[in-house]
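Appendix B, example 12.
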Amino acid sequence: MTRRVLDVESVLAFVTIADFQSFTRAAEALGTTQGAISVKLKRLEDRLGYKLLERTPRLVRLSAQGSVFLNPAREFIAAHDRAMAALVCESRRFRLGIAEHVAGPEIPLLLARLSERDPALTIEVRLENSRSLLNAFDEGALDAVIVRQEDDRRSGEDLGPEHFGWFAAPGFYHQPGKPVRLAALAPCCGVRDIAIRALNSADLEWSEVFVGGGHSAVMAAVSAGLAVAALSCRLAPPDAVEVGQRLGLPALPSSRIMLHSTLTDHRSRDALRTLVAVYREHRVPVHASVAF
């Protein structure tokens, strides 16, 4: 009986496609093309004699055999990476800064994927306001930062749009003719600047009744019904509602999320590709079509 030998790159292609449920985003994460990753998957399926993934015009999902093979495939890749790391014996640090108003529920998965791809990588994450992170980046204290575009005009990797809205608790009451009660981040926060410029341009009176304390504190103030806040539509508290139209508040301009990095070596760029792919995956709206 001929022994079937697995190809590491083909198995990695399968696992990555399964994780992202997208050929396009898997190719981005692996730094290759959709065509190349399709060829690797076909090679693996031919080697095993099973169809591992089912592909339709709207989604990619595991076949019955793919579901059985996925965890052993992960273990196969992890064993390969451990073996390679043992030979290299090079423990490295990856110092990543993420702006507080940008960080969302994708962060734990992002860190897990980075660790899976490079077990010798020690990841350090710093959550602060954009300006503090950019200063640390310019001083060489951070290897990469994720911030909003208007906080820094230099060129970088565009991770996608960020849309903002006015959020409050469902029962929040604003007395007509009175200043809008506003909860905001610290005075150095760009989101606060956007909100105040919009209110001033619309000639609306406002009063900050809750200032500072970080993004989580502002969201807590919103959930408690203390005030209205300008927040990312992606990161607003699940129990809050958009009240801009109801209260006659001005529309807030959208932003772009940018990745800045000085890293150029192969292993670091590989980590950055994984970071970008995971971040973009979790920024796709729930009802958006999945790209293949």
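The domain at 8-88 is CATH 1.10.10.10 (Arc Repressor Mutant, subunit A). The chain has a mean pLDDT of 81.
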